[in-house]
Design brief:
2 copies of one chain form a homodimer.
Chain A (H helix, E strand, L loop, with lengths): L3 H8 L3 H9 L6 H14 L5 H8 L4 E5 L8 H17 L3 E5 L4 H10 L5 E4 L8 H7 L4 E4 L10 E4 L1 H14 L4 E5 L3 H5 L3 H16 L3 E5 L5 H14 L5 E4 L2 H13 L9 E6 L1 H6 L5 E4 L2 H16 L7 E4 L3 E2 L11
Parallel strand pairs in A: 1-2, 1-3, 3-4, 4-5, 5-11, 6-7, 6-8, 8-9, 9-10
Antiparallel strand pairs in A: 10-12
Chain A binds a DNA duplex (30 and 30 nucleotides) through helix 2 and helix 4.
Amino acid sequence: MVKITDVARHAGVSPSTVSYALSGKRPISAETRRRVEEAVRRLGYRPHAGARALAGGRSKVLAMVVPLRAGINVPVVMRFAVSAVTTARRYDHDVLLLTQEEGEEGLRRVVDMALVDGLIVMDVQLDDPRLALLRGLDRPSVMIGFPADSKGLTCIDLDFKAAGEACVEHLARLGHRVVALVGSPPEVYVRGTAFAQRVVQGFTAAADRGRLTSAVHPCEPTPAAARAVAAQLLREQPALTGVVVHNEAALEPLIDAFEELGLRVPADLSVTAICPDELAASLRVPVTSIALPADEVGARAVELLMRKLDGKPVPEATSLSPRMTERGSTAQRAVA
Amino acid sequence: MVKITDVARHAGVSPSTVSYALSGKRPISAETRRRVEEAVRRLGYRPHAGARALAGGRSKVLAMVVPLRAGINVPVVMRFAVSAVTTARRYDHDVLLLTQEEGEEGLRRVVDMALVDGLIVMDVQLDDPRLALLRGLDRPSVMIGFPADSKGLTCIDLDFKAAGEACVEHLARLGHRVVALVGSPPEVYVRGTAFAQRVVQGFTAAADRGRLTSAVHPCEPTPAAARAVAAQLLREQPALTGVVVHNEAALEPLIDAFEELGLRVPADLSVTAICPDELAASLRVPVTSIALPADEVGARAVELLMRKLDGKPVPEATSLSPRMTERGSTAQRAVA
DNA sequence: CAACAACGTCGAAGCGCTTCGACTGGCGAA
DNA sequence: TTCGCCAGTCGAAGCGCTTCGACGTTGTTG
């Protein structure tokens, strides 16, 4: 194993100089730095993570808490995760993966062991049991999602309430008077998952404000469930002309189902979704949608955490404004 | 922070005794051990990960290399991952998440830094560029999947070739003479992803052996693609009566598409799949399938790695025999 | 032109843990 | 009775790194 003393010897300086040259925490002459970097390259030096963590008090590892609970859309969650990992690497950090089973105890464990410097917490619930723990921890954390009470925490997410509202308002503007929200699987609501609840709030509030007739239906993430929900919606609301879909897995089958039921999109039915742009744009009928900016959220979560690790102030709440892209699945309501 | 000296003081012993009491590497009297464990509990002692790694030469962290490449089924891959994490925890280890962008360089990096003790490598390709690296590394690794040449490596996976064969043989036994394989997305084959190629090999070999007429079609993981493939198959092979599906995302839409095209499953068309049992069992038409035992594979991969870390010998290849469950999607071929 | 900042570098002291060698009492074998 | 052993414990020596204080050297500035 190549250690810092090897580098020091090859560069003709002391180990502490090597350390300072690499960390930049003290001024080092350009010439010395060059020789150190040269030696690092020649020898393939890599600082020992444990030694560095012990001496420096920083492990350069972040914990990512990814509870892959029932009903969540795994591909979407993993987009956040991959983006976070990529961004962490840009800050020379690695990412430790924590899953559900570990639970709150696991968070405390990795912090107490000084295994990680900070935490990224995903799949936040309105009344999340991890909140108290995170507030009490002596390590910074960032949540992806807003719990009911985010006081003293750092949170970031798409403004899902505004997203739900924007969808309804878009439909209302096009003349639609009877609208429905096809949401996440029921388990997600039962748990009180923050983002799902907020979409419902926004959807309902905007519909009430606009005096629209509205309905909300959870939906399992399968084609069969999508078909069933489509049929049910039309049965309950034959006058339905606008649908908001907040369920990535159900979006495509749902549109297919509506068309099989004799409704053309957008001629007879306008559909808008909250989902990643790639998905909305790739469908047979490109869907007007509010982008779910998973990459941006994951990246910014890490950036916030890095700022906190540097002792810099960060906003408690970072709420990304919804951005709608009109694609072809929404149209003026046909006058009967 | 609670450190080992604190525990030692409270238990009335020396730090080294605490260390031995906790690691079991030297005999310690029952009474002393009791007092140490008591002190650990009272104080909430957690050994400092960095210090432990530095002194002990083991970080108790495993790297999991999860390249979420185009065309892979993310939920399935994450089942492996979650199972691996859970099992690692049972061995008191944590898991570091490495993604694609880091590439081979990332593997070397985390090993050189002594950040991880071993590696779990997923999404293996027949001619995987990481092979040489893994062979040369001075840390053990386990691959989930078999490359073309696995000499000197430790690999585990479902025997996908046998799985492909078993599906065909099952159909042949039921009298089917014209069969098709609906496979993974094209990118997966282009990359030479090991498991996908092996299914094709097994499928083709068994079909040839049984003198069946056969065809292989990749399929994108979308309902639209599934419909298109279904239509194309029937156009090219009107006599088709048996289908093997190796594509989780396309399975349900594919069955729907066949039925829309006028074929009843299993009366007119027998369908069998290679996928997780939960998926096969949950469909409207429960599908006869070869189980993809993601949980078992993930868990056993970690167990193999642990054995290697202990210096114990492990088999180079662990190939899990396919296990078929008949569900309702396959039937004797109707005599025309 | 003296006094005093930086600047650039070094040596030494730890960070918290594991592990090695050594020591102390029994206890069975010789 | 003595020797050797083993169980059970301790002290000290690191593991490889960061960081603190110190010490020349140059430049600045009143």
